[in-house]
Design goal:
About 45% of the residues lie in helices and about 20% in strands. It contains 14 helices and twelve strands. The chain is α+β, with helices and mostly antiparallel strands. The strands form two sheets. Strands 1, 2, 3, 4, 5, 6, 7 and 12 form an eight-stranded mixed β-sheet that branches. The N terminus and C terminus are likely disordered.
Length: about 425
């Protein structure tokens, strides 16, 4: 009797399976049909991100879960005036059509199948893999979304220069779905989806990278275990003329991170105690001074603090890793020909002989310093200006009601093309 009953139940289940699959597909199609889709094409701009102070603080602050005696990590970052420009709209037949133009001018396009998103995301660290990783995370959370045409038609942000170009791609993708399908995501939601999307790929990014979602102004990020707090009302009362320098040398980021992480969660010797002091109390002191310098508009003080931060890093972090001796970096920072033109400088990102940044005394001094670095030292430079604003965007914002400005804040840098023209951003 048991055998017959079980066989009958199994037969009924097999018979119902196709019906269940059809019902699921019908429900999914019904969800997509009920999804709010904005019909217009949207123009988006997402900047890169430069860390002014507080490198390594994002992962260091994460160890407070295991050692509550640690201070939260803090970093002061800013969006750059270089970034990614894109036009996005819903695809009428739920396809994923992706186009990109790199800062070199090289263009490419592809069409991705939904079922291939995960395999594309995990296959490599590439422009397409970052986009696929974010879309994969979005469709897990919002299965009702459909296809998209994402045309990254212009890029002024170089890759692999410590400016979070991969995070900018991920934020751009999250924002594209947010505005096209009216998901109502906050900036923090966009950052989270961008982070989850990038970590779906082989990339090992930190949480500070997605701070580019906040746009071109400076923000203070605090990392307390798994909690992220953002102070986005940092005052910048004067333009800061930065120079980002590619040292044309080599750095070993995985080895640097491996060596520095040995200090956590508990220190085991004087060297590891110094690392925790550097990323804890000393970092908080530098951050407080830097915020004060920005508020009073003192670019000179910002540059001096960069030099001070580098000296502290050399004193406490260099003994923890042989990969932080950075001879090329230190030779550049101490170059006497640059002193009349810069207020100070420091290493960028994980440090090592990767990149450096300087605060120039003026736009003209920056031009002279770049000429020295490129012509005499054979390194490549990228000028960055913090505090530069798009006047047309400011005037447009002043015409909005408080409710509309709140909406703009939630969907920052997202505008229908019909409203601002094809070249607006």
């Amino acid at each position: 009797l048991f055998y017959r009953t079980s066989f009958a139940s199994f037969s009924l289940l097999v018979w119902l399976l196709p019906l269940g699959t059809d019902c699921s597909r019908n429900r999914q199609q019904e969800n997509k049909e009920n999804m709010t889709v904005t019909p217009e094409e949207h123009e988006l701009f997402v900047p890169g991100r430069i860390c002014l102070f507080g490198e390594h603080s994002d992962w260091a602050g994460g160890y407070r879960k295991e050692n509550p005696d640690l201070l939260p990590g803090q970093c002061l970052i800013s969006g750059t005036d270089q970034g990614l420009y894109a036009r996005v709209k819903a695809h009428p037949s739920s396809k994923l059509v992706l186009k990109c133009t790199l800062h070199t001018g090289q263009s490419s396009s592809t069409e991705i199948e939904w079922e291939d998103l995960l395999s594309e995301a995990t296959s490599a660290n590439s422009h397409w893999s970052y986009i696929c990783g974010v879309i994969y995370q979005i469709q897990k959370r919002y299965p009702q979304v459909g296809g998209i045409v994402l045309d990254n038609y212009k890029t002024t942000l170089p890759v692999k220069k410590g400016l979070s170009s991969s995070a900018a791609v991920c934020v751009l993708t999250a924002r594209a779905y947010n505005v096209v399908y009216d998901l109502g995501l906050s900036l923090r939601d966009e950052m989270e989806l961008a982070y989850l999307g990038e970590t779906t790929t082989p990339s090992k990014c930190g949480r500070m990278d997605q701070g580019c979602a906040y746009g071109q102004g400076p923000i203070l990020m605090e990392f307390d275990g798994d909690d992220l707090n953002v102070k986005d009302d940092v005052i910048l009362n004067t333009p800061i003329h930065l120079i980002l320098v590619d040292l044309q040398a080599h750095k070993d980021t995985p080895s640097i991170l491996r060596d520095l992480r040995k200090a956590y969660p508990k220190p085991s010797c004087e060297v590891t105690e110094g690392v925790q002091k550097l990323f804890g109390r000393l970092n908080h002191e530098i951050m407080k001074k830097a915020l004060g310098a920005l508020e009073v508009g003192c670019a000179k003080r910002v540059g001096e603090l960069m030099t001070e931060a580098q000296h502290l890093f050399d004193r406490y972090a260099m003994p923890a890793s042989q990969h932080l001796t950075s001879p090329v970096l230190h030779k550049l920072l101490s170059n006497p020909a640059l002193r009349p033109h810069v207020y100070g400088g420091k290493g960028v990102g994980s440090q090592g002989d990767g990149s450096a940044q300087f605060v120039a005394k003026s736009e003209e001094h920056r031009r002279i310093a770049i000429n020295i670095i490129e012509q005499e030292l054979g390194m490549s430079c990228l000028p960055l200006t913090l505090g530069k604003r798009n006047c047309s965007s400011e005037e447009e914002s002043q015409q909005l009601s408080p409710e509309q400005q709140d909406r703009r804040r939630t969907h920052q840098f997202a505008h229908p093309i019909d409203n601002v023209g094809r070249n607006g951003h």
